[in-house]
Write a structure and sequence with these properties.
With about 400 residues, the protein is an alpha+beta fold. Helices cover about 35% and strands about 20% of the residues.
Length: about 400
Amino acid sequence: KRLQRRFAMHPSKFFLPVLTFVVSHEATYLVNAEIRTFVGKIEATDEYVHYSEGFIVAPGYVDVSNLKFTTDTKDGSTGDDFKAKSPNDDGIGDDDGDNNRLLAETSITYKTLQTVDIVLVHEPKNCAKSKAGCDWTELGIGATGDNGDISWCCTDDAIAEGLCDYSEPAYGRMIVNRTLFKGHHRTIRVFDAPNQEKYIKNGMMELKDGMNEDDDASGMYVLIMANCLTTGREVYVEGEYSWKSKHGYLPGDLFDEMYFFAFLVILNSILVVLYGLAMKKYEDAQIPIQKWIFAAMVIGFLETCTKYFNYRIWNSDGKQHWFPLYLGLMVGVSKRAFSRVLVVMVSLGWGVIRDDLGDQMRKIILLGGTYAGFSVARDIVAVVQVIENEKMSVHFE
């Protein structure tokens, strides 16, 4: 009866902290770092392109100057034609004896023009936020034939459909429609010899308002790389490339969220102090559930602190450091487990019409621990599986 009277007089003292805690914001960490790493090969193929997306708040830039491009070799020797993709390749030796790739032994006259194309284009808001995403051909990247098939590269099939021509700058290159394309385009010429290294000149691509017809340069961008000459070499790429907005390296769509977490840190600290002082003042009338509520509020405060400082470090350094990232993940899982356990306890009447839950308390705690274990595993896997550099095939698009 004493509990019933206290609950009837001051229900908010029981539920307000719980509700504040339960509805607190849960930001996702499943976003790409803005100083990104590329380690892998760009195959000589017309079947797909490599791409990476990011959100920029203008003025900003994307810088690929630190990426190193190395031509492929079988084993560092001067034996085979180094994976030239001709049906006449015997796969054994240098057929014409000039220690060169097989392009020198074919009728193709573009052997010195193998080029890796790199484009950066702004995705319009109306399609960038849609589930289907943007059609890159409408942005000037690639082309669609009469049969509906998409071609990223200027190949014999694309030429037969009238999507490009045999002119020297076009054949074996990414199809870029200069009428539609409003972004940045960089190229790097591929050497005929193996193990040759190159960096991109003018790899800094600045993004400012008013550069295109759309005055607002802020938004989602996609960086696309293609090595289209199918008879050419594979190219290994390694290094870091940067996406930076006017405020720093933090993704542009998360910048306001950082300040929201700063607000939550202040709000939660006030709630923790006030609730703690109230518990101290009326400690003679305390009931057990109030300690659980206080512990949940402290965990919520710690979660907002870890997320705020993770964003601050990310914004200044360009990368998420493992300690604040995984500490925030663990604290966030603990908060969610605590909130769910509290809701079950209150629903069973603890602190309202019952002084204790008996054997049910142990079951509730076990259920909360099980939930926390599975949630930690899920969140860690989700973080580890973030892919910064993806492939887009002609069939998927």
